[in-house]
Amino acid sequence: MVQILHLGDCHFDDAYYLNRPERRRLLDESREQALRAAVETAVNRQVDLFVWAGDVLDGERRVSLKTRSLLEQALSELKEAGVEIAWMTGNHDPKCYLESQGLDQLLHAYGVHIFDGPVRTVGLTARDGSPYKIVGSGHEEKGLMENRLKTYPVKVEGVVTIGLLHGSVQGGTLQPDGGQSGESLGLPPGLKPEDLYFPCSKSDLRRLGYDLICLGHVHVPYKIDGADLPAYYAGSLTGLSHKETGSRGAWLHRLGHGGQTSTFLTLSPLEWRTVALDVTPEWSLEQLNEALQAVLKNRAGQLMLRLSINGVNDKILTALRHDQETLRDRIGNAVEAAEVELRFDMVPERVLELQRTGDTFAAHLSRCLENPEFMGAVWSVYAQRALGFEYEGEGDGHEENEDHAQVLQAALHDLWPRWMGGQRYGGGGRS
């Protein structure tokens, strides 16, 4: 039997959240803990092969001393435990980047099997003495757009063969979370057409006949759709943003005479979750917390929560508008979240009542425009403040002032539909 622990995109030393130090700290700590957990799992379970499926490093900055030390410690522990290591270069950390940072020398020093260019095959032996092969390639430079999978050799009957690639498998993918970017094109979850590095298809994978294919590049952990296609994306080791929700970790694959099995192991202590709650007027703040606790009862780790509150509730709306920091703290304590981001789309209860009765601002204004007494009062204020003379009221000049009020009324009648139709003044000119 051959056991493989398969990690996806780690993106160490990325440039995320440099202007948000607390979130940055949580992300760095989570990634470090997840890698340590992966190494510990590999050692304790005595796996045969530890696969890094590309984009271990983000490649936008120099490798930090902390990351270099963390990687060296992981490589040392794996080598000491007799675990073979396979490292693919990705679109973020291609061969040229590894060489510029001197990391290729570090990997060679620990006997890592590096796949950083054209296809190559490595023959290995599992702990139980059974032979197996790994076949893979990697990115030499950023932006590998060719379908290199067409150059992979097909499996030789009787030899367990594992394929490695960091790229985009198109067509008929499973859809975690109910959707994906580029769905009509059959793109992997979260990818846009411009992200299609190393593009290939399910038929390309199926042609190879491999016992297992370890994939990198897509940040969602999932299996490629197809009972006869043992191809898996490991996803990001720890979620990088609210776009990467759910549990994160690595795949544990087993290949033997009984076939192939794969189990996803949650390793990241951090989980990003996005929740939407629809509230009603009778809800209290305590009921809001209780509803949120019920939704989040099955979470995997430390929570990074984005909460969207919709509906009608004056108590909650007041807290959101005037004391949001306290509300965030209360919610964070209730669900034990490391971070709470609040969004809301709510209206006051009074506004909802006005909408139900038709007693809206537009209706009020329309009635006022038809009221001569109101228009006379408007003209009085306008004449005094804008034109600089007093409105006389009843008596001398009353008819003239009444004419002025009618002119103003006509002007407002003319302006009102134009205003509501978007012909407004602003920014020093018409928009």
Automatic annotation (TrEMBL):
This is DNA repair exonuclease SbcCD nuclease subunit. It comes from Acidaminobacter hydrogenoformans DSM 2784. Pfam families: Metallophos (PF00149). Gene3D superfamilies: 3.60.21.10. GO terms for molecular function: exonuclease activity. It comes from the Bacteria. Keywords: Exonuclease, Hydrolase, Nuclease. InterPro entries: Calcineurin-like_PHP, DNA_Repair-Maintenance_Comp, Metallo-depent_PP-like, Mre11_N. PANTHER family: COMPONENT OF ATP-DEPENDENT DSDNA EXONUCLEASE, PHOSPHOESTERASE. Residues 3-221 form the Calcineurin-like phosphoesterase domain.
